[in-house]
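Incident review: delayed structure delivery

Summary: a single-chain prediction request sat in the queue longer than the usual turnaround. Root cause was a stuck worker, restarted by the on-call engineer. No data loss occurred. The affected request and its eventual output are reproduced below so the record is complete for anyone auditing the incident later.

Affected input:
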Amino acid sequence: MDKFQPFKSVLCKRALYKRALTSIGLALLLAGEFSFCLPYQSALPTAFAKAQKSKDNAKVDPFSLDLMPVSIAADGMMRDFAVHLPPNLKQQAQAGIQPQSIPLVLVFHDGFKLAQNMDEMTGFNAIADRENFVVVYPMGINGHWNDGRNIDAYAKFDDVSFVKHIIEYMQRRYHIDNEHVYACGIGNGGFFSQYLALMLPGHFSAIASVAATLPENIYHSRQSLKPQNVLFILGMNDPLVPFRGGPIHFESYRDRGMVVPAPEAVQFWVKGNRGQSTPNSQDLPDTDPTDGCRVKAAVFGSGLKGSEVMVYGIDGGGHTWPGGINRYSPKTVGATCRDISASEAIWDFFKRH
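Output delivered after worker restart:
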């Protein structure tokens, strides 16, 4: 079987990433959580925010919404998330029929100012409808996740416990498949996806980290206790988080923690899997020559229980979601790669595990 068939299938669906990823040196992207203290509601997806603000909320059939707002108690606080159900599951729930067991994908937003409209940016809802899985968009406190870096006042919030409550709720309410629960995110949300895998070993069949390598303190203080399938999608020219490691920064905001170089972040998971240290790699087609990016894909396979670490390294890529909607200036976040769709690439990786 062609080892790179998964790459080709992603290319067929949209357009896979550009720019060459240096050998093992994968492209790392952001690490973002930048101290713009926005109101808590700023992290809500647009559709969720509209539902929250609607004066007729009590009269609205929640199943009529593309995103259903949910609030649950977690550690003495009310926490919010939005749920997107594929059509068949929505019909079963409306009819009072016990839903069939299907996968769950948790999508975590970036930090602070960048913590907005993950549903629109990623386009995951349309993929969920086509592929039949549930998408949940959790909301961080003031647009931030406690991802283990222990910065500011956010270390006091137990976001890992919040995620456990979400999974338990979704299992009770929609009978999601506990064997196929996935987590992904960008920047602060990418760091948090990795932190979840470390804190809840065995809970996630696969995780994906976009624009986020690995915090230095996590690298030195923790280790992967169980084999974990991990996908990195990393921009080598991220202006917010250094690909070669160092301090995370944004404009005048500093003290956001340190990250290790991208290759070390990848090897952290490869070693935990006891997988092959040298990847099988391939340059991907430059399907959009105008975006200034090129993509290389690399797979570190042969891990315990069939685990693998996969990387899309984007030469020229910035602090963005490849193939997604970017509402920020390239001067601020860098270039958005159009050679691939991060969302399609993530789901292709997830559904193999």
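Verification: Residues 1-43 have pLDDT under 50 and may be disordered.
Action items: add queue-age alerting; document worker restart procedure.
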